[in-house]
Description:
The chain has 216 residues and is of the alpha+beta class. It has helices at 3-7, 72-81, 97-100, 122-126, 132-135, 140-150, 194-204, and strands spanning 20-23, 28-34, 65-69, 93-96, 103-110, 114-118, 158-162, 169-174, 182-189, 206-209. The chain has a 5-stranded mixed beta sheet with strand order 1-6-7-8-3. The protein has a 3-stranded antiparallel beta sheet with strand order 2-5-9. Strands 4-10 form a two-stranded parallel ribbon. Helix 2 (72-81) packs across helix 7. It starts with a helix and ends in a 7-residue tail after the last strand.
Amino acid sequence: MDRRARARPPRSASELHPSVATIPVGARWLRFVRSTHADALGAGPGRSRFSDPMLDRGRTPRWLPMYFGESFTLCLQETLLRDRANAALPGPFLVAEAELALWDWAVIEVIRPVRVVDLRGAALARSRVPTDVVGAADQRLARSWAAALHRHPANFDGIAFPSRFRTGDNLALFQARVGGALRVAARRRVLDSPVELGLACHTLDLGIIRAPRDPE
């Protein structure tokens, strides 16, 4: 049996015994949302780390994941930057102001406890989940594990996992299972948040290409 075959989850989800964490009432997480999207708790149908692998086969997904991060900087990196700056020349990586203008960021508050599979730190090893599920750029293996965790008889609300960029923790929540568990506590334009944006630019060594201004 090759390494890739061993890395896949067991056929029966009930054979899994993952570590579990509870996200308590009052906890706040962040997410970036397109400014044109009115619902800050919406979920898109595209492929992602913990989306339904049925999408890889061109079929209708059985669930939609919603992603959250623990900080503004993490959300900016996971949503906009990703791997783009990895092979760039030394010095600030430039991001167009026009790109940032497309996004809002929302503060999401937990209003009922949310139970998630915990894939952070040592919990990943205790859950016997391969590190590639949370750390690989290729997300196909992660999607196969998401399917197993989604069909687990414990009906978990989602998955807590570390950013592969080592900038903090993320949540991937199964949208249909967290109805009534979350509320939008605040929402602002990214460009209207100079403190948060300035900190993210400093941490990630980003520069903003300002849009030309019309002459007065």
